[in-house]
Amino acid sequence: MNMPTAPTDFNELVELDRRHVWHHLTHHKPLEEKDPLVITRGDGMRIWDQNGKEHLDAVSGAVWTVNLGYGQTRIADAVRDQLMEMCYFAGSAGNLPGIRYAERLTAKMPGLSRVYYCNSGTEANEKGFKMVRQIAAKDGGRKHKILYRDRDYHGSSIATLSACGQGERKAQYGPFVPGFVEVPHVSRYHSELGDDPDFGVKAAREIERIIEREDPDTVGSICLEPITAGGGAILPPEGYFETVQEICRKHGVLLHIDEVVCGIGRTGTWFGYQHYGIQPDIVTMAKGVASGYAAIAVTATTEDVFNRFKDDDDPMGYFRDISTFGGCAAGPAAALATMDIIEEQNLLENVTEMGEYMMEKLRGLQNKHEIIGDVRGKGLFAGIELVLDRKSRKPVHEGVPIRIAADCMDHGVVIGRTNRSITGGMNNVLLLSPALIAGQSEIDEIVEAVDAALGRVVM
Ligand SMILES: Cc1ncc(COP(=O)(O)O)c(C=O)c1O
What we know:
Elements: H1 11-20, E1 39-43, E2 46-49, E3 54-57, H2 60-64, H3 73-85, H4 96-107, E4 114-118, H5 121-137, E5 145-149, H6 158-162, H7 167-170, E6 180-183, H8 199-214, E7 219-224, H9 240-251, E8 254-258, E9 282-285, E10 297-301, H10 303-310, H11 330-344, H12 347-368, E11 372-377, E12 382-386, H13 399-410, E13 413-414, E14 416-417, E15 429-432, H14 440-457
Parallel strand pairs: 3-13, 5-6, 5-7, 7-8, 8-9
Antiparallel strand pairs: 1-2, 2-3, 4-10, 9-10, 11-12, 12-15, 14-15
The chain binds pyridoxal-5'-phosphate.
């Protein structure tokens, strides 16, 4: 329990924030007129801002991260104890929580056995790309291309933006890295083939068509989100991943699944891919791994991927990569405590149960509000797509979700939305991702806030 402190006057700090802090994904001009938001305290699923106003956090720290909520003493204590025992040594050596976490984590992902530590989702994906490039180099450099999907996001660096299917995130940051090739998204709601019962298989076959067009001998891997997150909460259609797996095996293409959002329980299984019965070669994760209490990300691989480096006699053949803070022992200490809490409190079951409850309530909202074209989700992760009319499925102007999110915020609930991601006016999806500890009362409060906001904002 994070005890409230006496009210503090944050005015001076807010002014210093305005003067010196460059906020992420924020246009700063409006902040000349209005105060920046400063979050000063958190407890459970509640946060407080600089004015002492309480908010219910329906998005786990805005970006699917504080998955166990705020004020988890046990994680904070684990971090403190570890830092006092041994805070840091470069990842060229092992450390005790890093070893323990690697064993616990790989036990949850059969077929994967190796854990490479770094700090962010971007970095974890970049490591995956570097592995693919180096594996190709070992064999003459041909199989170097990396496929990614329209609407998926894998990070903010130039290389991960080269693998980004979100036009508004990449615009103005090119030129990009060569050798990244886009495949189509799998939005059933927006595909011409969406009503086809074989949509999933057909969408996967599109990937094969692109592999063949590029020449399979040049394609090293495909990187996919199990559920497209920031690109609009898009679930893979039935049969999709199974067919992608088959195609990858046929053409010797490594399957890299980006679990940065879905990993560690968000969808009710440890990993999103585990809903689809596939066996990836590379799995990346970050955000919820330590629930935001320490920076940690992981690139997990099969023994086969690892051995391609281990068994290479070339003195340059090992993975010549380092991440300075991948050696900070606070990350795995926090990750171990996070995993303990998920297991002891049966939170995967809670996610499944509360996820179903949330979807049921959202379907109720859809029945009530004509503007909701589609609701979809898995576990405690959902999207509400807003359309001009249900027939054309044309998106509402992005100002609508912006106003709805602002209205929820005014009324004490923080929700998310597709934010400067998809081109073509498709930033029209509200996003919900409450902490894995959420109960019915929190879900009710969230859905009521969205309901009321829809009533107020949409004429
Ligand atoms: C699916 C996915 N992959 C990767 C990333 C990048 O993670 P990070 O911001 O930790 O670099 C994100 C961030 O939102 C993400 O949603």
